[in-house]
Specification:
252 residues, alpha/beta, Rossmann fold, 10 strands, 27% strand, globular, binds adenosine-5'-triphosphate, ATP binding, AAA+_ATPase, P-loop_NTPase
Amino acid sequence: MDTRLLVEDFSAWYGQTQAVKNVTLPVYASQVTAIIGPSGCGKSTFIRCLNRLHEVIPGTRTRGRVLLDGQNIYDDRVDAAEIRRRVGMVFQKPNPFPTMSIFDNVAAGLRVHGLPPGTTAEEVVERCLKMVGLWDEVADRLRDSGVSLSGGQQQRLCIARALAVEPEVLLMDEPCSALDPVSTLKIEELIKGLKEKYTIVIVTHNMHQAARVADYTAFFLNGQLIEYGVTSDIFTNPRDQRTEDYITGRFG
Ligand SMILES: Nc1ncnc2c1ncn2[C@@H]1O[C@H](COP(=O)(O)OP(=O)(O)OP(=O)(O)O)[C@@H](O)[C@H]1O
């Protein structure tokens, strides 16, 4: 299996607080990798390091390497904006640009990164809205505000926005935690469909969700990677007592 991202001995800090501790982890191409663990264990910090978003917070620092297709994204010569195009992100709370229409929300990144050669913004917007299963619901009101949609639709809009700039990797930080069960199921089905084309890393509080959508699962505790493996192994046959205690609900 191809390794899309390889995290090597990676640590991250907020001031003196070390939130990620010496993590080494592969992320395989066209697979879904879930990051699980109790609140405060460093899940969000970790995935924000995978597209250099951690460093936008003042006072933070990192150490270690993250190889994207073999290239260290933390090399001095690397353009962080280009990394954030190649490694897109979807957040916990749907965050469409509030003053923009549905169309402009999806097209927003194209203004920064440019249109793929030989395409129009209309084509890209339609293709991405179809990919997230939103086209039929919004085709006749593309000029309406993005925030006029339901929460679940807004989250799919944000995924379409991330896909418009043709990323290789999609990071999802608890993408369903603000959604109802039906919208959650739609996003989970979407994730399963998208993984053919994209590599997905999802942070989730919900172990059932990890079991449903992820091929690989990484369990974090206190900033450390405790255990990583094929999802079914992590849930049915964990090697570490702490993983077992967490997945059986003894803490967290
Ligand atoms: N902006 C920040 N400034 C200072 N410390 C922070 C900041 N964000 C997170 N931390 C600290 O870093 C550690 C890891 O937090 P992080 O948000 O990555 O954990 P998490 O596993 O994603 O938690 P949750 O599941 O509650 O979102 C915690 O100790 C947290 O208090």
